[in-house]
Amino acid sequence: MKQLLRNLRMILIAFLVLSLALIVGIIIQQQKSQKMNWGHAGENKLALKGRYSEAASIFTRDGIALAESHGGERHYAEDPLLASSLLTLVGDYTHNIGNTLEERYENVLTGQGRPFWQQIVYDFTGRGMRGSALHLSLDSRLCRKAAELLQGHKAGLVLMDYRSGDLLAVANSPLLDPQNVILWKDIPDGALFNKAFLGKYPPGSTFKIITDAAWLAAPDYDPNLTVQCKGREALLGPGSVNEDRADAGHGLIGREAALAHSCNHFFGTVGIRVGAPALLNKARAFGLGKELAPGGLNCASNEAVLPDNTDDYLLSWFAIGQAIENTELSISPIRLAMLSAAVANGGELMRPRLVLETEDANGQRHKAEQSELFSRTGSAAEMAVLRSDMIVSVSSGFARSAQVQGEVVGGKTGTAQFQSPDGSVHSHALFTGFMQNENIPLAIGVVIEDEMIDISALAGQIFATAEGIYRSGR
Hints:
Blueprint: H1 2-41, H2 45-52, E1 58-59, E2 65-70, E3 73-76, H3 80-85, H4 87-90, H5 101-104, H6 106-110, H7 116-124, E4 133-136, H8 140-150, E5 155-161, E6 167-173, H9 178-183, H10 195-198, H11 208-216, E7 226-229, E8 251-254, H12 255-260, H13 264-274, H14 276-285, E9 304-305, H15 312-319, E10 328-329, H16 333-344, E11 348-350, E12 355-359, E13 365-367, E14 373-376, H17 380-396, E15 408-419, E16 425-436, E17 442-448, H18 455-472
Parallel strand pairs: 1-4
Antiparallel strand pairs: 1-2, 2-3, 4-12, 5-6, 5-17, 7-8, 9-10, 11-14, 12-13, 15-16, 16-17
Helix pairs in contact: 1-2, 1-7, 8-18, 11-13, 11-14, 11-17, 13-15
């Protein structure tokens, strides 16, 4: 009898302890939910500041904190250049910028939204207010180099590992200190826009990679096709594609030289022969118009649209990356990087990923985004030919400034013309390329707005920096 009473007493004590833990957990959760509601309602910045005062950190793959909390404050990367260039990706605790890691992973970082039983366990062990850290694919050294090169420009850049899909560097410019956003002061035009993910730029001649891929896959593909380039003389008559670089043009030119020297006449002709459906299908295979959300962050869809009644005039312009009249075509730096990634990886386009792991309050790591195939852009044989074309473009064509000593680099430049509201014509500079290396498989996409600069050289410097970092084992 005494043993039974003792057992009942122990059960009662355990029940009381568990009940107390449940009550404490409920109270804590209510307080946290109230703070969350205040922040979401935008009632004051202090509510959000309080929520993030103990939030978990966001780390690069090389262990640099891009966001961390200590001393009751949320802090961003110690390196001002790194913090500024990644502002539109990482965000800040005020959520003044949407589509950022701080906003999308708010509950994860601050420990909200856990299963009730899990929260009770964390509360009971004193970790109830701790969130889960994010471990990103980004390399802080490459991000910093990209930021350094983009300073003074309006630009966006993405560098990725074409084998895994890991995003190794993202940069946007103009640069802006996170504190300026928190205080909402001195914000340059365009500094809050993630050009790397959300940009919608005419692709210009970078689209010739897709046209070339469609031609390589065409039933009537002729590897010996040559086209007579007549310079400024229009391909089909007034209003159609021409070559405005020289009166004499390129003369009789084949596919490899046409990509290296970006011949409009050749690719306008090929685009007409391939036809609208094949061009659109190939554009979609390279990712245009397909949903993309690395790390849960939205990217521009970058649609490719050709109406059913498209004539040869419009088709020839579309094939060289210039959408006119009722056609639509745009690209962003991340999708530019994906063009070259697919070519370099033999036609297997990997899904770009940003958040590799989360690390919970107990220090346990959990896989986030998996390395997975996004789409197939063509056969390995077709991509080998296209890869060779892009390598020639760097070795002896317009993209020769992208060369890196001792490395095999391929690429394609682009110039995208656009008209401003006042009627004046401007140009963006674009580049997509890859460094073909078993140990350092890189693909890049970069856009410099409203400038004509040697953008290939910029890409070459990023490749060379990566080569130096990974070869030294740092």
